[in-house]
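[09:14] KT: can someone run the structure on this one? pasting the chain below
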Amino acid sequence: MSKSIALVFHENERNRDIPSFAIWHLAQIWRNDGVRVHYLFGVKKHIPADLAILHVDLTAVPKEYTDFAKRYPIALNGNLRNISKSLISQNRINPKDGYEGRVIVKSELNFAGRPERKLLGTPLSRKAFRIACRLPFDPLQILGPRPRFKSPTDYIIRENIQSVPRVWFDRKDLLIERFLPEKQDGLYCLRIYHFLGNRGVCILWKSGNPVVNSSTVIKRQKVEVHPEIVSLTKSMGFDYGKFDYVMHDDKPVLLDANKTPGAVDTAAYRDMCSEWAKGIRAYL
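[09:31] RB: done, C-alpha cells below
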C-alpha cells in the first residue's frame, strides 16, 4: 500500500492559494513518486495518513491545530506554536543598550502580519485584504500608529537608535534589532536555507537593497549552509521550513524562521524543490 501524507492548513486558507506555498511544489513531487497527499482545511475532518505536516500560516498556531496534528503517527512541525520574531531574535535592542550602529524596524508577526490579515477576522475583512494586496499602496496606512508594514520590503532601516522614536520601543507589534548586514561585491546578501528533516538546500541571494527578498534579489547561487544553522533548526523544533540568515563577522546571524515558506514558479526553484522534497524519505 502506498504511503500517505496529510497537509493541515488553516480553515480559512483557500485551496486556490496553496500553489503559492513551497509545500504545494513538494506535494507534486511526492505524488509523482506514488505518495498520496491529502489537503485538510481546519480540524473538523480527520483523514488517516502515515504522517501529517502542520502548515497553518499564522505566527501563533491555535492549540486545536497542534492537538489535531498529534492524532497522526508522525506530525512534522507539530510542536511549533509560535514563531514571533521576538522569540527568535538574538539582536533585539532597546534605548538603554548603548548600541550605536544601524538598526532595522520589523513587524513582530511573520511576513509583516500578512498571514494574520489573510486568515483571521471576518469574511469581509479578509476580502478587503486580498483587494488591498493588488493595490500599489496600503490603504490601512491611514489608520493607527505608524509604521504599518504591507510586506517585509517596507521594513525600516535607521542610522542609529536615536533616530527611532522612543514610542516605537513600547509597541508590541514591532521588533527593533541591530542591523547586521552581509555584503559581497557591494551587494547585500541573504542566505536562505530550505530544509525538510535531514535534507536541505541553501541559496545565497544578492541585492542592491539592504532589505533582501524575492522582490529585490538580482543574483542567486547555491552555497553550503553553515552547520550552526542546521543545528538551530533542530534545537528550535523545526522539521520543515526556511531559515534566513547572514554571515556577519564570520558568524551566522539568524534573521527569520518560517514554517510555511512561500514559492516562486521558476525552473531553478523547481530543481531546488526536487532536492528539498527528498527529506520526506526519513519519515515514510
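[09:33] KT: thanks! The first helix runs from residue 22 to 32.
[09:34] RB: yep, looked fine to me
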